[in-house]
Amino acid sequence: MALRTLFTKKSLALASAFRPIAVASAAGDLRLGSGLSQARGLTVAALPDLPYDYGALEPAISGEIMRLHHQKHHQAYVTNYNNALERLEAAIAKGDATAVVRLQSAIKFNGGGHINHSIFWKNLKPVNEGGGEPPHSSLGWTIDTDFGSLEALVQKMNAEGAALQGSGWVWLALDKGFKKLTVETTANQDPLVTKGANLVPLLGIDVWEHAYYLQYKNVRPDYLKNIWKVIDWKYASEVYEKETA
Ligand SMILES: [Fe+2]
């Protein structure tokens, strides 16, 4: 199992998710989802390393699922997103408006898949490293205020995740406009920002079948019940505190 790397949580963070090719500007905005450098070239996405072994989340999520999910599914989003960006660059250079518009769907789907999975890996942590430990400090208090209790929030996210038709994501988000927490769902690979520019993802749970089927078959509620055992609330708390500072 070679993917246990020296990377810290920060190494999975934003800048590592993209790498420049050609002569991309080092000053480009490399936030997740930005995609293009500011000048002279194209910044493409790259598959981030996981900060834990594939089997480290067992028994909640099997190593086989994690390996396929990361190496095949996330990699496919990265590859297809980069291909779409290259075609977009060519279409823009040619002034081909039809091609530019036609590429928007592929960019949204594959770019969204890359954004969402890059967050998802950071939302998980092995039990022996603190996975599943309830949130403390300000996020914990805010969950109690906004939802009644952590258990009530979990029930709400599980219910909305189980009820989501087809494939998609269920999110715990910070609404920076209303300054409160909210639960949202997105279809397919739509990233949370498609539900509102003020929404910041604290925790996203992948409810695509590829995230659970090999272990849980068609019983999505069992997957949702068990994933809380490996949720990294410390990461969600850090994002919350940064965004509310
Ligand atoms: Fe996925």
Kindly report the CATH topology of the largest domain.
minor pseudopilin epsh fold
Order of helices and strands: EEHHHHHEEEHHH
CATH class of the largest domain: Alpha Beta
* Number of continuous helical runs: 8
How many beta-strand segments? 5
- The backbone outline, from C-alpha atoms, is globular
The portion of residues forming beta strands comes to: 5-15%
Kindly state the percentage of residues in helix: 40-55%
Tell me, rounded to a whole number, the average pLDDT: 87
**What radius of gyration results from the CA coordinates?**
18 Å
Widest sheet, order of strands = 4-3-5
Uncertain ranges: 1-16, 21-40
Query: How would you classify the helix and strand content by structural class?
Result: alpha+beta
What CATH architecture of the largest domain do you see? 3-Layer(bab) Sandwich
Q: Which hetero compounds are present in the coordinates?
A: fe (ii) ion
Corresponding CATH superfamily of the largest domain: Iron/manganese superoxide dismutase, C-terminal domain
Subunit structure: Homotetramer.
EC number: 1.15.1.1
Protein name: Superoxide dismutase
Function: Destroys radicals which are normally produced within the cells and which are toxic to biological systems. Destroys superoxide anion radicals which are normally produced within the cells and which are toxic to biological systems.
